From TrEMBL:
PANTHER family referenced in this protein's UniProt entry, alphabetically: ANTI-SIGMA FACTOR ANTAGONIST TM_1081-RELATED-RELATED
Highest taxon of the lineage: Bacteria
Coiled coil: none
The name this protein goes by in its record: Anti-sigma factor antagonist
Boundaries of every STAS domain copy: 1-110
Family of this protein: Belongs to the anti-sigma-factor antagonist family.
Lineage of source species: Bacteria, Pseudomonadati, Verrucomicrobiota, Opitutia, Opitutales
UniProt source species: Intestinicryptomonas porci
Database matches in NCBIfam families: ant_ant_sig
Amino acid sequence: MTIDIEKVNDICVAALKGRLDVITSAELDGALDGLISSGAKKVLFDLRELDYISSAGLRSLLSAAKKLKAVDGRIALSSLNSNVAEVFKISGLSAFFDIRDSKDDALSVLA
């Protein structure tokens, strides 16, 4: 998995590409810890190029949401492909995240 991070105004956009699973979730956890320690309070996960997410990946995103909530931050997810969206739906976690169809829509919600 690769994580490309860009800043759009006061929002950190983390674009994930590849597979988010037990092997790569620690990388995501570390990247998020770095963002929060540098003062980030709004994070958008752009999942347009995320091919697969496992329960470990879901756990990492839930952990991200909890960490951001602890610093009065916000999280959003955008551009889920049908396979990843189905995992969120089946797990019931789609209700816990602000999931938007496009990156632009998610950015406007977090702004």
